[in-house]
Amino acid sequence: MSLPPDPEPDPPSESEPGGGVPPGSTPPAEGSATRGVSHNETVPSPRWANRLVQVLMVLLLVLVLVFVVRHLIAFIAGL
């Protein structure tokens, strides 16, 4: 299966014979090299939000440990 030919050939570029670029022009690869280099500054989250996340993580850990210990005790008692 072959693809249909392009309806329009690529537009002529500003390149010089031999693949060079005329003075003052930016080659296509160079134009996108600096895109996305800078980073956006973010606002740090408030301290209470960090504490809330820590407390929720500890609470989840305690609940998981209680669940595991209860099941271990039930398993041992069932033997």
Strand content: under 5%
Structural class: mainly alpha
Distance between the termini: 68 Å
Instruction: Extract low-pLDDT stretches.
Output: none
Number of helices: 2
Residues in helix, %: 40-55%
Radius of gyration: 32 Å
Determine the mean pLDDT: 77
- Largest sheet properties: none
Q: Care to describe what's here?
A:
By secondary structure, the protein is mainly alpha-helical. Helix content is 46%, strand content 0%. It contains two helices and no strands. It has helices at residues 28-31, 47-78. It is elongated and about 85 Å long. The model has no long low-confidence stretch (mean pLDDT 77).
In short:
This protein is an all-alpha fold and about 80 residues long.
Question: Could you name the key traits of this structure?
Answer:
2 helices; about 0% strand; mainly alpha; about 45% helix; about 80 residues
List the helices and strands and how they pair.
Elements: H1 28-31, H2 47-78
